[in-house]
Amino acid sequence: MKSNTLIIDLRRLLPWHKRYASNTSTAMMWAVWLFLWRPLLIVIGVVSLQKQHVIHQLFSAFGLGIEHGVSALLACVVALLLWTNFVPAKTVKPSSAKNIFDYEQHFDLPVQDIEQGRQQKVSVVHHDDHGKIIRIE
After folding, report:
1. How many CB atoms are located within 10 Å of the residue 136 CB?
2. What pLDDT, in 10s, does the model give residues 33-69?
3. What is the rounded distance in angstroms from the CA atom of residue 49 to the CA atom of residue 68?
4. What separation, in Å, do the N-terminal and C-terminal C-alpha atoms of the chain show?
5. Nearest partner of 62 among 73, 52, 70, judged by Cα
6. Average pLDDT of every residue of the chain
7. Contact 98, 85 (CB under 8 A)
8. At what angle do helices 100-107 and 111-119 cross, to 10 degrees?
9. What's the pLDDT at 3?
10. Angstrom distance (rounded) from CA 18 to CA 9
11. CB-based contacts of 132: which residues, under 8 Å, 6+ apart?
12. Distance (Å, whole) CA 20 – CA 25
């Protein structure tokens, strides 16, 4: 067994009675699932014995449904391929890195205050009433 697998399979380490209970319960669930289909299979069998054309129409309708489903699936695939190839994607343009002089012009602060604020572990930023930075301590 691989050491880096994502599937944890420790079934062989379980005691025999837990493995037996698990296998038995799984088999019983499959049996119940098949038993639930029994009435439908009986009805289909009786109808097929009495009226064969009904079963033929049922299977042709089923085939037609599958045909339409496959056609819709192919149409979606073609539409998605056309969309990815011909509709331009809106890419985010990376902004250029800002330097200290850009911050000086934007905040209208001296370069020394900005540098001092960057070098300190704790900075206090003072704002005016409109939210503009007026001083950095």
Report:
1. 19
2. 999 999 988 888 888 788 878 777 777 888 888 899 9
3. 29
4. 61
5. 70
6. 85
7. no
8. 120
9. 64
10. 15
11. 107
12. 8
- For residues 66-101, one letter each, b for 16 or more C-beta atoms within 10 angstroms of the residue's C-beta and e for the rest, the string is eeeeeeeeeeeeeeeeeeeeeeeeeeeeeeeeeeee
Per-residue pLDDT of 82-108, as tens digits, reads 988 888 777 778 888 888 888 888 878
CA 107 to chain centre: 43
Three-class DSSP labels, the chain: CCCCCCCCCCHHHCCHHHHHHHHHHHHHHHHHHHHHHHHHHHHHHHHHHHCHHHHHHHHHHHHHHHHHHHHHHHHHHHHHHHHHHHCCCCCCCCCCCCCHHHHHHHHCCCHHHHHHHHHCCCCCEEECCCCCEEEEC
How high is the pLDDT of residue 103? 82
What's the token pair of residue 52? Answer: 């064969």
In whole angstroms, what is the distance from residue 111 CA to residue 101 CA?
7
| Spatial distance between the Cα atoms of 2 and 36, rounded to a whole number of angstroms | 40
Fill in the amino acid letter for 11: R
Structural tokens at position 75: 């149409």
- The model's confidence at residue 2, banded by pLDDT at 50, 70 and 90, is low
